TrEMBL record:
Highest taxon in the source lineage: Bacteria
Organism: Shinella curvata
Required co-factors: FMN
Domain Pyridoxamine 5'-phosphate oxidase Alr4036 family FMN-binding residue range list: 18-96
Keywords, sorted A to Z: Flavoprotein, FMN, Oxidoreductase
Classification via SUPFAM superfamilies: FMN-binding split barrel
Keyword Oxidoreductase: yes
InterPro entries documented for this protein: Pyridox_Oxase (IPR000659), Pyridox_Oxase_Alr4036_FMN-bd (IPR024624), Split_barrel_FMN-bd (IPR012349)
Pfam family, one: Pyridox_oxase_2
The name this protein goes by in its record: Pyridoxamine 5'-phosphate oxidase family protein
Length: 187
């Protein structure tokens, strides 16, 4: 029975990576460089059920990149309000250096996303009232593609919580070699 739910989770994540479905936006948690948790929204860009992996894109200069390099353990959470379902995920993030994979993702992005990588200042730079950085950053001498990061999270745990009926359902799946070990939990 947990297998049916696992298939449903991967179906929903697969749909979320290609369309505006509830889990298209996920919240990504990293450990900050000072150890404090850091949380932000990302767009799910790719779901590979076979590898048990999810991908998102970001700016190579964004703080989360340093955080992932420092500690690749991350957690993600999504919420489907119409279904009253929460999906918690955790795993290890990797910043891709596979040029073929990077290029394939880059070419799949829309113009309005690509333009973000032309932003002159690193995400999080402090700006004055005129939008100029208070501290001079690195000169912008790299092409936007070089500032593009493809991050893939190899999941090691998925957790589904369904509060849609009086009988709440909570189920976890832990990676176990090439398969997933499912278990029902008290909600
Ligand atoms: C709806 C929405 C979608 C977002 N998607 C992304 C994304 O896919 N990648 C990303 O780096 N930041 C995305 N952001 C911005 C992040 O939430 C965050 O503010 C930014 O990446 C800086 O995070 P950092 O300082 O922790 O690196 C999104 C924000 C919103 C509100």
């Amino acid at each position: 029975m947990t297998e049916t739910l696992l298939a449903k989770i991967w179906d929903q994540l697969g749909a979320a990576a290609t369309s505006r479905s509830p889990f298209n936006f996920l919240q990504l948690a990293t450990a900050g460089l000072d150890g404090a948790p850091q949380l932000r929204t990302i767009v799910l860009r790719r779901c590979d059920a076979t590898k048990g992996a999810l991908s998102f894109v970001t700016d190579m200069r964004s703080p989360k990149i340093q955080e992932i390099r420092n500690d690749p353990r991350v957690a993600l959470v999504g919420f489907d309000p119409a279904a009253s379902v929460q999906l918690r995920l955790s795993g290890e993030a990797e910043i891709s250096d596979d040029e073929a994979e990077r290029l394939e993702m880059w070419q799949s992005l829309r113009e309005r996303t690509l333009i973000l990588f032309s932003a002159p200042h690193a995400p999080g730079s402090i700006l004055d009232d005129n939008g100029q950085p208070l501290q001079a950053g690195e000169p912008l001498n790299e092409e936007p593609y070089k500032r593009f990061a493809l991050v893939t999270v190899r999941l090691n745990r998925l957790e589904w919580l369904d509060l849609s009926s009086e009988h709440h359902i909570r189920c976890t799946f832990d990676r176990d070699g090439a398969t997933w070990r499912g278990a029902w939990l008290a909600p």
